[in-house]
Write a sequence for this structure.
């Protein structure tokens, strides 16, 4: 039984491929069911964000076979050729898998290290898998532990400080275009979590005028109210771009909503005042060709990575501290996992000893003739007490040893000494 | 060696140290290096001002009578305008671009012959001094426009590339650079215009012709047209950013060509 991670992320695959394999949150249960048919995958969950598509699983039997099955399911579900992403996939097993999951939840593996969205995304993906009963004791424990680690990393290191995130990277760029952001105006397209976060940063930096355009006007009004902004109708967003300095686009539109021609017309009307477009939507909202228009600066979520890399260097020390925390937590978790191996040993040992006790007690009581119920009870109690006292020391020691690297030596010796070989679960 | 030359070389030393420290500052981002850069440049500027004052005192005329003097005053004027800009915007990065130019102008001055030729009567008179002074100050302002334009293009390319590198973090914002660019242009253009007017008036008096349409004057008028066009496009058509920066760079190249190229060919003439 092994913990297994199979997937691809921004580190291995381009956004186009990630888009093709991406599974929306509402559809997560379908591929989970698909994987449920694979006997090797005892437990499983699917995490799909715009930066990664990953399956966390507990595999029985051959790990390679399980990993293959996961890749097949991903390919089959989105109708993508296996060959299209085979060399983009990574597979982590055991401690490496645990480390990966901890790093993902702690946002250390994120495109923008420290960005806070990923934890929520992992939680949501876990909730879906749990609701479908696709997870069991191991994944449940692993994910709970991952959330705990993420919280620790956030509170004990500076990597989650707002300076290293998609939104703060965008703010930094905005400052290089506009200088002081005080009094600048921002237009938000879409009212999602990412948009809200970016907006929060900009407002903290002095942006005063906030406009929100969303397909659902009510949500636009709600978000606008939070920032003392103004909701505008979605249809009017191109007109509103004439007055805005920064545009954050995060709609869930399936196609491009702003073309180069639109942008050229808008920049004419703006009298060539610079405009900063931030496209954090997946799939993209803004035609990449818009960047070719003079005084237009377009960044999509991939572009922001390069900006952030510089920030990452500044934050490297903090990240290293976070990695150290994760390393310790991986150790703690692997210990717990190893102690699991001990449990079946203890169970079969107790069963074996109970069998002996039961047989000997029956024999002894048969030879003793007539006894009062009190006497029989006293003898039975004595046999229980003896068994418990004899087993207490070896069991305690076994549990303690299990936490160490050589735990499996003790379990295997014990199994041999008591002839428990064939009775494991 | 006269006092004014010693002071001039001290000024050059100050500018050299200033240049080095501005460059070190932009490379390391250490504020202490930036302060040293400003102080050494200020010290150089003080020595330079004294040197010019001494020259005025000993010669009894403005230090605008030879190519050496003209380049020296040009360097001095660029530093003056730059220092005002630095204090106004609180940004030292521009210095890393301006100070090398100052050093260049100063070095050209140092390399030129310092002979104190008796100026002929046709090269004297308040009209000519005013013309030359205005032209030098105007060109000094354009030197700043040029540097701001150059920096704008660098920063713009960084931002457009979507993979901004180290330079991106060191350069000021586009907004600031555009602002420096337009303000120095607004300062320099009226000076250049007045220089052309006073120049043609002086030429009319000295040579009997108000139309100085030959040789160097043609180039001066061409750069005036470029800067005028740039200013017009900026103010009326909302031109800004990259195109404006490119035009400012072309304009200054023309100024440099006029200053160095034509002047050196006709060393009898000053600015």
């Amino acid at each position: 039984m092994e913990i297994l991670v199979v997937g691809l992320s921004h580190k291995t695959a381009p956004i186009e491929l990630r888009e093709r394999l991406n599974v929306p949150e509402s559809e997560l249960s379908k591929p989970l069911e698909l994987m449920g048919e694979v006997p090797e995958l005892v437990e499983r969950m699917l995490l799909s964000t715009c930066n990664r598509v990953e399956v966390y699983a507990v595999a029985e039997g051959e790990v390679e076979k399980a990993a293959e099955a996961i890749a097949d399911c991903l390919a089959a579900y989105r109708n993508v050729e296996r060959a299209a992403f085979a060399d983009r996939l990574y597979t982590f097993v055991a401690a490496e898998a645990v480390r990966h999951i901890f790093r993902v939840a702690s946002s250390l593996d994120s495109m923008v290290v420290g960005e806070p969205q990923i934890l929520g995304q992992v939680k949501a993906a876990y909730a879906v898998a749990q609701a479908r009963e696709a997870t069991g004791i191991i994944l449940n424990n692993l994910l709970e532990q991952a959330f705990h680690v993420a919280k620790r990393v956030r509170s004990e290191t500076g990597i989650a400080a707002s300076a290293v995130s998609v939104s703060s990277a965008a703010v930094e760029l905005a400052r290089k275009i506009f200088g002081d952001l005080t009094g600048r105006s921002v237009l938000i397209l879409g009212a999602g979590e990412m948009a809200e976060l970016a907006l929060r940063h900009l407002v903290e930096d002095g942006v005063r005028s906030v406009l929100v355009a969303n397909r659902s006007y009510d949500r636009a009004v709600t978000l606008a109210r939070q920032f003392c902004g103004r909701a505008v109708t979605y249809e009017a967003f191109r007109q509103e771009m004439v007055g805005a300095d920064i545009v954050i686009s995060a709609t869930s539109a399936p196609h491009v909503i702003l073309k180069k021609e639109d942008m050229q017309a808008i920049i004419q009307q703006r009298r060539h005042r610079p405009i900063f477009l931030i496209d954090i939507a997946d799939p993209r909202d803004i035609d990449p060709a818009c960047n070719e228009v003079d005084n237009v600066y377009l960044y999509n979520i991939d572009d922001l990575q390069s900006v952030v890399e510089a920030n990452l260097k500044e934050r490297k020390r903090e990240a290293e501290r976070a990695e150290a925390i994760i390393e310790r937590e991986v150790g703690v978790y692997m210990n717990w996992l190893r102690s699991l191996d001990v449990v079946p040993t203890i169970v079969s040992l107790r069963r074996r000893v109970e069998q002996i006790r039961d047989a000997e007690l029956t024999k002894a009581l048969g030879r003793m003739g007539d006894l009062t119920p009190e006497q029989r009870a006293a003898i039975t109690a004595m046999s229980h007490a003896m068994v418990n006292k004899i087993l207490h020391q070896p069991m305690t020691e076994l549990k303690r040893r299990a936490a160490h690297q050589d735990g499996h030596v003790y379990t295997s010796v014990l199994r041999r000494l008591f002839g428990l070989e064939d009775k494991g679960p | 060696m006269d006092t004014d030359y010693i002071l001039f070389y001290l000024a050059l030393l100050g500018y050299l140290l200033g240049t080095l420290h501005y460059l070190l500052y932009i490379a390391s981002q250490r504020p202490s290096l930036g302060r040293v850069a400003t102080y050494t440049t200020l010290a150089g500027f003080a020595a330079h001002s004294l040197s010019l004052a001494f020259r005025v005192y000993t010669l009894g005329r403005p230090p605008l009578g030879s190519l050496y003097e003209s380049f020296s005053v040009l360097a001095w004027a660029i530093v003056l305008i730059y220092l005002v800009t630095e204090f106004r915007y609180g940004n030292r990065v521009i210095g890393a671009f301006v100070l090398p130019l100052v050093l260049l102008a100063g070095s050209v001055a140092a390399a030129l012959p310092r002979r104190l030729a008796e100026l002929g009567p046709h090269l004297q008179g308040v009209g000519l001094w005013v013309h030359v002074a205005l032209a030098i100050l105007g060109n000094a302002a354009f030197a700043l426009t040029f540097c701001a334009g150059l920096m704008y293009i660098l920063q713009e390319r960084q931002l457009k590339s979507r993979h901004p590198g180290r330079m991106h973090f060191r350069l000021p914002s586009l907004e600031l650079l555009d602002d420096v660019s337009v303000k120095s242009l607004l300062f320099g253009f009226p000076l250049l215009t007045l220089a052309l007017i006073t120049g043609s008036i002086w030429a009319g008096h000295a040579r009997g012709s108000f139309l100085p349409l030959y040789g160097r004057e043609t180039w001066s008028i061409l750069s005036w047209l470029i800067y005028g066009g740039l200013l017009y496009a900026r103010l009326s058509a909302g031109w800004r950013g990259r195109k404006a920066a490119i035009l400012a760079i072309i304009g200054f190249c023309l100024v440099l060509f006029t200053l160095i190229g034509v002047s050196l060919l006709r060393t009898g003439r000053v600015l």
Chain A has 16 helices and ten strands.
